[in-house]
Amino acid sequence: MSHQVLVLNLNYEPLNICSFRRALGLLFLDKATVLETNGEWVRSERIEMRMPSVVRLNYLVKRPRPELRISRRSILARDNFTCQYCGRQTSPLTIDHVIPRMNGGSHSWENLVCSCIQCNNSKGNRTPRQAGLTLIRQPRRPRFVPHISFSAFARAVRVDEWQQYLEPFAPRLDH
Asked: What integer pLDDT is reported at residue 152 of this predicted model?
């Protein structure tokens, strides 16, 4: 029962991705309502229901805006696991400082990009212009900070059943 369920706040803001078991608890305690099912049936001696895919809480959870921290996983998710110099989605990918730190470049959202090993090695400790490379997209700090982790949100946007609930927030990801 490793099925994942999207949990929305009362105002339809994405709050969490939880297990089927946790979602079932929310439903039985009348703390949530099913908005979408994935078509599969759950049958036991006590219940028979379609497996929920999206649930909405029946009350508003007030949470402070989370702080979006820079991490390897977040940079890779922001750049869609794509080298920002050549466009390849090869593995393994590295994180590159556009302006090298030895040249005064910062460790910030605006200076970090996803890069394949070949491009990172050919760029070395030079700027993209000095190395003859151009960025596909200028790196930016994402404007939307989801309550769930940034990388989990970036993956969740691709789940068909969840798209209509997440896409209003996705344009603010700066993809």
From this structure: 81
